[in-house]
Amino acid sequence: MVGRHTYDNIAESIDKVLNEFKIQNKTTLIVTDNAANFVKSFRVYSNDNDVDLNECIDTNIAEENEVSIEITNTLDGEPSNIDNIISISLPPHQRCAAHTMNLIASVDIKDAEKDLTYRNISQKVFKKCQSIFNKQNQSTLSADIIKNHLGRYLITPNATRWNSYYDAMTCIVQNIDKMENVCNDLQLPTISGPREVSFLQEYCNVMKPISRALDIIQGDKNVSLGYLLPTINAVHKSLNDMKNIVFCRPLVVALKRGLNKR
User: Fold this and answer.
1) pLDDT in tens, 169-190
2) Residue ranges in 151-227 assigned as alpha helix (H)
3) Ramachandran region of residue 32, left (φ > 0), alpha (ψ -120 to 50) or beta?
C-alpha cells in the first residue's frame, strides 16, 4: 500500500485486491485489528447494514489525517479518485478477537485502579517487580545475581508479547521464596509480607483465564472461528467462579466489564 493509511486509502486498497482476485462476491467476512482507520473503513464502505457503529476500540492507534477533495478541482476536470471511492463496497468486518482480548487485559483492567485499596497495593507491588526487571535488563551483573539465586533469568515484560506481563508476574510468584534474597543482593525493596505475596498470587490466578484464552485464539494450529465463543464463555465462567478473592476483586469486575463491553 502506497501513501497514508487513511480509512479511504485502506478501503480502496482492500477493494482493489478483492476485485483483482475476483473474490468480491465470495468474501463473507474480513478480519482486521482494532485500529481506528480500519474500523472507519468498514463503517463507511461496508455493504453490511449491521456493521459495528461503536467508537473505535483502540484509542492508542490514531487515524491518519483525512485528505479532502476540492470540488472545484473535480469540476475543472482535474483527476481525482472520487469515482473509485464511490464505487467501493467492502464485505462485513470482524475485529480481531485476540487483539480485543489483549485490550481487555491491558486497557480495561485499568478500571480496577478506581478502587483505592487495589490501586495502592498494586502500584506498590508492581513498582517493586519492575525495579527487579529493570536491574536484570540493564546490568549483566544483576542478571547473574538473579540467575545464581533462581537458576534462571526472570521473564520480563515485553510490549510485543501480549502475555508477557502475566508470564513475568507468574515467574516471580513461582520463585517467591527466593525473591527476598534476590532483592537484598540487588539492594532493592523486598517483596515480602503476606499482603504483597497474596496480592501477586491472586493477580496471577485472576489473569490466568485471560492469558489462556489469548494463547488459544491467537494460536496458529487447530484454530477456527468455532473456538471463539466457547473460549469467551470459559473465561466468563472462570471469573464468575472465583471465590475468596481479597485484593483483586476490583480486577475481576474490570475484566468482566471489559468482556461485556467489547
Assistant:
1) 999 999 999 999 999 999 999 9
2) 164-174, 176-186, 194-217
3) beta
**Residue holding cell 510468584?**
173
Q: Between the CA atoms of 198, 203, 206 and 208, what dihedral angle is there, to the nearest 10 degrees?
A: -120
Handedness of CA 258, 208, 61, 112 (dihedral sign): positive
Q: Please name the helix (run of DSSP H) or strand (run of DSSP E) that holds residue 32, with its range, or none.
A: strand 30-32
DSSP class of residue 26 equals T
Pairing mode of beta strands 93-95, 30-32? parallel
Rounded to an integer, what distance in angstroms lies between the CA atom of residue 171 and that of residue 158? 14
pTM of the entire predicted model: 0.77
Contact 64, 19 (CB under 8 A): no
